[in-house]
Amino acid sequence: MKSLIPWRNKRESAAPVVWVDDWFDRSWENPFEAALSPLFGPRFGGVPTVDVAEDKNEVTVKTELPGMTEKDIDLTWYNGVLRIRGEKKSEKEEKKKGRYYRECSYGSFSRDIPLGDALDWNGATAKCKNGVLTVKMPKTEHSRKTIEVKVN
Question: Residue 36 domain-assigned?
Fold first, then answer.
């Protein structure tokens, strides 16, 4: 695809060309999502990034959700997939002498994180502090055991 886009000036940044190229490739996979991704996609803060860490006893999922509180977030667990949903609404209205100002904003997201069935959702804990959501899920007893496989 890059061969179809002319290179005008070597001093210009290649970042816009790469972004357009990526958008064009994604538009063949899912045209509706590709059309809206510049407005709502992860590049512009629409879908939060997620950090997943695992140790011997539990899996920890962290995501940054600035400006959101516990009441704005919904967590569900189904078939080994953790779904994090969030919705934020804000309205600002200002009435002064001879001037009226109103601004509304709305945003929502949903992110599915496949983690497998070896976690105990009933023992999960979640907290949201300073815009960072932390979900901890203990592993089941079966998943804590390691099996050694010998190779001949």
Answer: yes
CA dihedral 35, 38, 41, 44 (to 10 degrees): -170
Task: List the one residue out of 36, 121, 123, 106 whose CA is nearest residue 72.
Answer: 106
9-13, 66-70, 111-115: segment of lowest average pLDDT? 9-13
Pairwise CA distance, residues 43 & 130, whole Å:
22
Q: Are residues 3 and 73 in the same domain?
A: no
Residues with Cβ < 8 Å from 132, sequence gap 6 or more? Answer: 62, 63, 64, 65
For the stretch 60-97, pLDDT in tens is 999 998 888 888 899 999 888 999 998 888 888 888 88
- pTM of the predicted structure, to 2 decimals: 0.59
Number of domains the chain is built from = 2
Residue 150 lies in a domain: no
Q: Is residue 151 part of a domain?
A: no
